[in-house]
Model the fold of this input.
Amino acid sequence: MRTPYPNYQNPCGWNALLPPAPVRSSLSGNTSCDLIVVGGGYTGLAAARRWHELEPTHQISILEGSRTGEGNPGRNSGFLLEVSLANDANTAEIDRMQKCNALVSKTMSELSALVRRHKIDCNLQRSGTYRAAAGEAGLQAIRSYVAFLKAANLPYEILGQDALHSKIGTDFYQEGLYSPDCYLVQPAAFIRGLANALPESISVYEETPALKVSRSGNAWLVTTPTGSITAQSVIIANNAFAKSLGFGRSRVTAIYTYAGLTDPLPSDLLAHLGTERSWGLLPAHRLGSTLRRTVDNRFLIRSCYDYEVETDNRAMEIVLKEALQRRFPFLKNTRLANVWSGATGLTFNGAPNWGEIENGLYISAGCNGGGVVKGTLFGAALVDLAHDRETADIENLFGTASWMPPDPIRKLGFKLISSMERRRGIAEI
Ligand SMILES: Cc1cc2nc3c(=O)[nH]c(=O)nc-3n(C[C@H](O)[C@H](O)[C@H](O)COP(=O)(O)OP(=O)(O)OC[C@H]3O[C@@H](n4cnc5c(N)ncnc54)[C@H](O)[C@@H]3O)c2cc1C
Done:
């Protein structure tokens, strides 16, 4: 069912592995503060942290529609890329891409420093990432990614089918590569830790969806189901759901994708696996499946996309299980202990919807499926923009989200492109 804020069918599998977190209060009654951030994800938290650095006496309120760890930021696959995504990679614009990579890599170092400083227990490891292809479309994508890595002077290692088999225990893929520029993390533990590490003057209100953002005199008023809050400044950082508040309707669309996690595998099954103990694999083709073997020997598989509405998660469980078994036939009796979905904010050209909307009102939305590190970068840079400070040139480097036609044309366009891509990349699913 379509909702104006996240209301998922199933709990987040990563969050279910953690001890229950103390409940943070919801917003109730009418109140005020200096800055309101809508959305307690990576973008929203980074914006709040940066605002606090610049204005340490300000009271900041983060309104989070879900619970921290349970919501969208805890639902991802946990790849923290230090370089551009494959879809972004563009050999023709290597100078711009290198500037983007440098910003993303610096942001990743800052996140990793936060994890160390606050002793956040989230299995953060610089494991690198595999990318692999099973069919022709995937192989083509690998070749163009290699061209990008070469041009950008980034390290990588090409791996044939046998090498992949000996490292990760599957001969599903014909060819792949390994790139060291990626961390892996337990995402629910990560977002919980980042929220717990916020300074005291930043309050996170959980289960507090913003329903409306409007002008109130010379301030902004945000209305929630149980109260309202005013501030001089508001940052819209709720990604796929920004348009439900009336922002970026013609630029960002919610796309759901699905993940499943097994229990820890028993030792007889582990014996079939390769030499790498904990690893992550991204699909070469954008419609392919993501895989992970976690530090505690679970398997994660992520696959499939839906336009604006979540498909029945029980049907997705079958699809995910089959995709895992195609890669690891010896897992035929292994169940997915948790299956869940998450919404990503998709823009037509992959660029963020970022900048000032009106005086005191700012937005950073449209993660395009890879926004943990980039969202952190964009959230902090937005605050610099709000303070007229020199900052990364987000619009020129990462682009500006382009216009999309409204539904039903948009939906038809998505269905058409994804079914064509699916046909091309069927071997990768
Ligand atoms: C299954 C899956 C796998 C993924 N894998 C990866 C990956 O490996 N690496 C990667 O970089 N990215 C991945 N992504 C994408 C990643 O999750 C996002 O890019 C990232 O979370 C974006 O951060 P954000 O803070 O911009 O937005 P979000 O994480 O979407 O956070 C927005 C927050 O706003 C809240 N919210 C929404 N509406 C309202 C409202 N009206 N009022 C108040 N709060 C509201 C939400 O609950 C959420 O907490 C994946 C996504 C999914 C679904």
About this structure: Residues 187 and 280 are 13 Å apart (CA to CA).
